[in-house]
Amino acid sequence: xxxxxxxxxxxxxxxxxxxxxxxxxxxxxxxxxxxxxxxxxxxxxxxxxxxxxxxxxxxxxxxxxxxxxxxxxxxxxxxxxxxxxxxxxxxxxxxxxxxxxxxxxxxxxxxxxxxxxxxxxxxxxxxxxxxxxxxxxxxxxxxxxxxxxxxxxxxxxxxxxxxxxxxxxxxxx
Length: 173
Known about the structure:
Elements: H1 10-21, E1 28-30, E2 33-35, H2 43-53, E3 56-59, E4 65-70, H3 71-84, E5 90-92, E6 96-100, H4 101-112, E7 116-119, H5 124-128, H6 132-135, H7 144-150, H8 159-165
Parallel strand pairs: 1-5, 2-4, 3-7
Antiparallel strand pairs: 4-6
């Protein structure tokens, strides 16, 4: 476990580790952007923010990446992990290792009919507010070990496909 990792999951990782040390059978499921055509993990509040700002922004050149997985693939992985009951296991529910912020922004801009905007890293906190903590992070992740240990084979649509198929009018403002 990397205590210096910028991902805010560290609090839940430490809590799980403490329970494990007390003898509780705990395993951890590390979630990416879990998506379907209705919800998109952190992308849903990102869409709401874009509406408010009048543009769909990314930080810098938009090359930072976020991992993703379809909600049905994640559900299957949870079932496999529960069946395994391996104390202390850490699983990565990742079907796609990293989708660039720019690719996400470009598709969301079409869905919302808004322009795409690059925001400098220095201006990101002012533009994104609480979301700035996530907006510029490059968080690629691999599920190779998870796939091997649980024989998990994600098969759902990728996140960009779901973003293209979304009904953006149905997302609350």
